[in-house]
Design a protein that fits this description.
This protein has 402 residues and is α/β, with parallel strands linked by helices. The protein is built from 17 helices and 13 strands. 38% of the residues lie in helices and 16% in strands.
């Protein structure tokens, strides 16, 4: 098996919290060298996040930080000092990709906007993640606003879709504003890298969390575009049955996207009489007349376990699955076979199990190593990558630049 596909690609990430760290974790899993810039003595604020893990000696580490920072190198740098900025420029000159997700205007305040980066390294790919976008030609009225995941979910329309029909908008329970923006950013980094390889010139790619959440909510937004109807919480008006339905010991998720699937569901319930009813011969009609067919489905499910329902529906060729919690997921034999859970050796608490890459490749290696200690790689990068001598490194330490 070969090395990771991105072996030899160097990523310089001025990152914090989730979106950018999730992006660079994806790249580092596939072999990229990720140099994580952190504040001296403090580091990424995620290092303080819960859950806090503790060993027998009472030493603590952040489970929050563990989630997104494996495989990386930690480089502490004071970007407010002239000496620190020079170090950063030297690192840009040695990197393929620069990634950042700090507040709008920070890079420009350091004198390191994309135009300045290009002067240092014409092939540099600069990926900037922000709440509302940073690229000048697309600057909107919200460009200077700050955003967290919940803000992006709310404004992008996702929270309006989640929850019960008569209930309030609901956070999705997953930080998709951060994670999906990070995934888009990884895609952006690869687009820029391919451009640099093909054309010898880098790229500036602007990833807005608001844009990403709007794109993720495309189904509802397209329905509005095509019909003028606003999709909100509650049962769908275009497709039914669709959703989680209650079994004896929990819920089963099922979907009936075609008339053929409706017939299969009726067969499973032994309710062939429902097949010929013209009120139920399309998704929108079944949604309209839900009160007339749904009681039969509810009654059929009531005395069956999730496992029994799933097996009966799958026997008819129906797509379905039990609603699972984290314990169910961790104990799933299929996921175990897929190697989705991997162990890494964290220096404070020892072996911990984390979610690995969902990508499986036949000929390339996915690698996992522990997250770095704060500033763990600063000296080695200065010496081995930038060829700084001991005197120069001592001066940087005295000036508190590293």
């Amino acid at each position: 098996m070969s090395k990771g596909i991105l072996d030899g690609v160097r990523v310089l990430s001025i990152e914090q919290q989730v979106a950018a760290p999730f992006c660079t974790m994806m790249l580092s899993d596939q072999g990229a060298e990720v140099i994580k810039i952190e504040r001296p003595g403090i580091g990424d604020s995620a290092r303080e996040g819960a859950p806090v893990l503790q060993n027998e000696k009472g030493e603590k580490t952040s489970g929050y930080f563990l989630r997104f920072n494996r495989n990386k190198k930690s480089f502490t740098l004071n970007t407010r000092s002239p000496e620190g900025i020079q170090v950063l420029k030297d690192l840009i000159g040695k990197s393929d990709i620069v990634l950042e997700n700090f507040k709008p205007g920070m890079m420009e305040q350091m004198g390191l906007g994309y135009e300045e980066m290009k002067k240092i390294n014409p092939k540099i790919v600069f990926v900037a993640i922000s709440g509302f976008g940073k690229i000048p030609q697309y600057e909107g009225p919200f460009s200077q606003r700050l955003a967290y995941d919940i803000v992006a979910q709310a404004m992008g329309g996702l929270m309006n879709l989640a929850g019960q029909e008569d209930g309030p908008p609901t956070w999705l329970g997953v930080a998709v504003g951060d994670v999906v923006s990070g995934i888009y950013a990884a895609y952006a980094a690869m687009l820029g890298y391919i451009r640099a390889m093909k054309e010898g010139e880098g790229e500036f790619i602007d990833v807005s969390m608001y844009d990403c959440m709007t794109a993720l909510g495309e189904r509802a937004h397209h329905i509005y575009s095509f019909t003028g109807n606003v999709v909100s919480r509650g049962p769908d008006k275009n497709m039914a049955p669709w959703g989680p339905f209650k079994a004896k010991d929990g819920y089963v998720a099922l979907i009936v996207p075609t008339e053929n699937m409706w017939h299969r569901l009726c067969n499973a319930m032994d309710r062939k009489d429902l097949m010929g009813n013209e009120k139920f011969n399309s998704g929108p009609k079944r949604a309209q007349y839900r009160d007339e067919w749904e009681p039969a489905l509810i009654e059929w499910l009531a005395d069956k376990t999730k496992k029994e329902v799933t097996e009966l529906l799958m026997a008819e060729g129906m797509p379905c699955g039990p609603v699972q919690d984290s314990k169910d997921v961790f104990e799933c034999p299929h996921l175990a076979k897929r190697d989705i859970f991997v162990e890494i050796d964290e220096p404070t608490v020892g072996k911990v199990k984390v979610i690995g890459s969902p990508l499986k490749m036949a000929n390339s290696k996915t690698s996992y190593s522990r997250p770095p200690l704060l500033g763990e790689h600063t000296d080695s990068i200065l010496k081995e990558l930038l060829n700084y001598d001991d005197d120069k490194i001592d001066l940087l330490k005295k000036s508190k630049s590293i």
